C-alpha cells in the first residue's frame, strides 16, 4: 500500500553477520507510468539493516537502518515550462533500540521494527526531496518567469 501507483519491484535479502544478530538489504524500484506532465519517473531505494542482539539478555535489540533513495523524473510539458529533468539522491540513517518482550519475541517482532524504521527513513527522505528538488526547482523556474514580466521590451529581446 505504501507504493500504490505505478510498477513496483521489491527484493529482500537477509544474512547472518557472524555475531549475535543478522543483517538485511531491502530494495525497492518504483517506476511511474507516463502521465499528463511526467514522461518518466523512477524511485530506487536501498535499505541496509543491521540487527544487534548482543543485549538480548538485557531485554534489548538494536536496529540500524541506512537508506539511500535515487529519484529521477522527466517531464514533457513543453507548453507550460519546457522539458525538465530532475535527478538526485539522499541518504539517511536511523538507529534505534527496542525493548524485547520474551513472550512476543520472534520474526514478526523484527519485521515490524525494521518496517517502521524503513518507512520513517523514506518519509523523511521523500519530504526532503520534495523540498530540495521539486519545490526549489519550481521556485527557480517561477523566479525566471516573474522577472520576464517586469522587463522592458528591449530587455526581453536581449534576454
Describe the protein.
With 159 residues, the protein is of the alpha+beta class. It has a single domain, classed as F-actin capping protein, beta subunit (Aspartate Aminotransferase, domain 1), CATH 3.90.1150.210. It is 31% helix and 46% strand. Strands 1-2-3-4-5 form a five-stranded antiparallel β-sheet, covered by helices on one side. The longest helix has 43 residues. It is elongated and about 80 Å long. The mean pLDDT is 81.
- What integer value in Å does the Rg equal? 22 Å
Number of helices: 2
Q: Estimate the strand proportion.
A: over 45%
Low-pLDDT residue spans: none
Strand order of the largest sheet: 1-2-3-4-5
Name the CATH architecture: Alpha-Beta Complex
Class inferred from helices and paired strands: alpha+beta
Which descriptor suits the 3D outline? elongated
Pattern of helices and strands: EEEEEHH
Helix content: 25-40%
Terminal Cα separation, in Å? 47 Å
* Count of distinct strands: 5
Largest sheet: 5 strands, antiparallel
User: Can you say what the CATH homologous superfamily is?
Assistant: F-actin capping protein, beta subunit
What's the number of domains? 1
Mean pLDDT: 81
Could you please say which CATH topology applies here? Aspartate Aminotransferase, domain 1
Entry keywords:
Aspartate Aminotransferase, domain 1, 2 helices, five-stranded antiparallel beta sheet, 159 residues, 31% helix, alpha+beta, elongated, single chain
Amino acid at each position: 500500500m505504501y507504493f500504490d501507483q505505478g510498477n513496483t519491484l521489491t527484493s529482500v535479502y537477509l544474512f547472518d553477520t557472524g555475531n549475535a544478530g543478522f543483517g538485511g538489504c531491502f530494495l525497492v524500484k518504483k517506476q511511474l507510468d507516463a502521465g499528463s506532465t511526467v514522461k518518466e519517473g523512477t524511485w530506487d531505494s536501498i535499505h541496509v539493516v543491521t540487527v544487534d542482539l548482543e543485549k538480548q539478555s538485557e531485554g534489548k535489540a538494536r536496529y540500524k537502518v541506512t537508506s539511500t533513495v535515487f529519484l529521477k523524473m522527466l517531464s514533457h510539458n513543453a507548453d507550460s515550462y519546457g522539458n525538465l529533468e530532475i535527478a538526485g539522491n539522499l541518504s539517511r540513517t536511523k538507529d534505534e533500540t527496542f525493548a524485547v518482550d520474551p513472550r512476543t519475541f520472534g520474526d514478526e517482532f523484527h519485521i515490524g521494527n525494521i518496517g517502521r524504521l524503513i518507512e520513517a527513513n523514506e518519509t523523511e527522505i521523500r519530504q526532503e526531496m520534495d523540498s530540495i528538488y521539486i519545490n526549489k526547482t519550481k521556485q527557480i523556474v517561477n523566479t525566471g518567469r516573474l522577472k520576464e514580466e517586469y522587463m522592458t521590451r528591449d530587455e526581453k529581446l536581449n534576454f
